[in-house]
Amino acid sequence: MEMIKQLLAQSRRTMLLAIVASALSAVAGVMIIGGVNHALENGLGSLTYGVLAYLAMVSILFMSGVWSQSLLVGLGHRMVYQLRLQLVQRILNTSLARQEQLGGPALYNVLTRDVTMVANATKQLPVSLYNGLLLLAGISYLAWLSPILFLCTVLLVALGVWGDFKLVGRIKKMMADVRYYDERLFEQYEAVIEGRNELGLSQPRRRHLFDRRLEPAAKGAMDTAIKADLLWAINLNWTTVLVFALIGLVFFLGMTLESITQDVVVGYVLTTMFLRTPIAMILEAIPAVLRGTVALKAIDKLKLADQEQTSNERDEPIQALHFESLSLNKACYEYPTQGDESGFMLGPIDFQLKRGELVFLIGGNGSGKSTLAKLLTGLYLPTSGSVKVNDDLVTHDSVAEYRSCFSTIFPNFFLFDDVLSGANESTLGDEDVKVNSREDYFNERVRHYLERLAIDHKVSIKNGQLSTTSLSQGQRKRLALLLMYMEDRQVLLLDEWAADQDPVFREVFYREILPELKAAGKTIIAISHDDRYFDAADRVYRLDQGGITDFDLHSDSLFHTSIKDSALAESTR
Ligand SMILES: Nc1ncnc2c1ncn2[C@@H]1O[C@H](COP(=O)(O)OP(=O)(O)OP(=O)(O)O)[C@@H](O)[C@H]1O
């Protein structure tokens, strides 16, 4: 709602103009009816004058109508455009922790379904405003024609509005239910797309997903939407009945009450018939507006943008600080509770890292390595304790500068095919280069790394874009490493990077690439299960149930298995 209010506030002038234009058109419409009524009652007088006045009114009605609609249509579409941009901006401003809590389907639902619903609601804005003003002008004319009949009209309309209000509450609840079912549907869509391998192989799983998950959600949405639309259809017919009841009331009152003349009755009936269209159009717009309101409420409920960008981040490029050291001081990170279960708690952790060091984090599955990696890189802020960089506290305001020291490859990394967009200035060339242009220099460097990573036979680069990202997982990880080279940041975090590499390239990674990066002045944190390469690190830390301890290569063993066992496992791999 806040977003819509802000957008409307920005367009105050256009709104005002649109209201003036709509009012002009509405007044012209009512004057046509009034004029016809007057002519019926008093005769036409001059035919030429009558025709000219009629044509003038029709022209005003047409031109001001088109003017108001064009203003409002533009406003509606601009609001949708801004809503889309704002929503993505808000998601970008949402902390990783909150995004993980919400999950992908909820965010997709907002970006696709909810935005469409709000767009449909805003499209009703021009129609409703125009018809609302037309209705207002018509009602004022009715009040002027006969106060007694107007009182009766008000009573009848009050009855209709009361019925509408009762229905609207129920329908809004149903629409919230439809949205709930739609969100469940999005979860199943995600399973259909992401689980394509498993579903392709297993008929029982396909059936279960289709019959037990997807179909009930789709049916729930359909049944509830049908009920809501049916109720509204009944309401539309009920309104038509009310209009005719009004005409009947006016007609019979006119016949019986002497104070009401025949021309008043004719004027009343004519105007009421004329107002049927705006009433119907306003009523037809209401369901779309209700759906839009439900969608906006759902967007608000997600509590996006919990980490507003600092003004510095919005306006200027972030200046990375010069990394010398980082430390965690009794730092803890606790995941939010899920249902009755309390979330996993990492820490309290004391940890130091200096520029140029190569450190390994090891530990069993679920011990907290990736959680610590996110804490170290500033993707999570500690729930207690502190993170310091170069002895300065990392706070909400300074975390953007801190983050810009890091390049990461997490197991669920996303491979951007645009190498240029993330590349550091230093990798784009300088005066000393032998090649002619910066572009050549850049391409040369990419080619060099593609060769180094042994994927030059699969991938090439054109206009800063990778030729393909449809590769094996191990090859994709090598490309992610290429992007990391081109990003050229000071601290590199690699979360089980070597897990998908063949034994030959794993050896290259631990024995050549990591030492080369270290020699080039990079600080490296690598999460690893490869115990035969632990000696490549300056220090090794072991995580166990959220706690951290130093790992002594000679006296400790990983996962409480003997070195002999792991060597055996390695040789059979
Ligand atoms: N987004 C999340 N929300 C809630 N709990 C989470 C989330 N991510 C991880 N956890 C929990 O935190 C614990 C540690 O997870 P983490 O991913 O840090 O382990 P890990 O040591 O990296 O494991 P692995 O070696 O299997 O990758 C797990 O018990 C997990 O259930």
UniProtKB/TrEMBL annotation:
Transmembrane segments: 52-75, 148-165, 230-253
InterPro entries per UniProt: AAA+_ATPase, ABC1_TM_dom, ABC1_TM_sf, ABC_transporter-like_ATP-bd, ABC_transporter-like_CS, ABC_transpr_CbiO/EcfA_su, Cyc_pep_transpt_SyrD/YojI, ECF_ABC_transporter_ATP-bd
Entry keyword set: ATP-binding, Membrane, Nucleotide-binding, Transmembrane, Transmembrane helix, Transport
Domain of life: Bacteria
Localization, UniProt: Cell membrane
GO biological process: peptide transport
Pfam family, one: ABC_tran
CDD domains referenced in this protein's UniProt entry, alphabetically: ABC_cobalt_CbiO_domain1
Boundaries of every ABC transporter domain copy: 321-570
SMART domains: AAA (SM00382)
Keyword Transport: yes
GO cellular component, one term: ATP-binding cassette (ABC) transporter complex
Annotated membrane topology: Multi-pass membrane protein
UniProt keyword annotation of Cytoplasm present: no
Domain ABC transmembrane type-1 stretches: 15-291
Name of protein: Cyclic peptide transporter
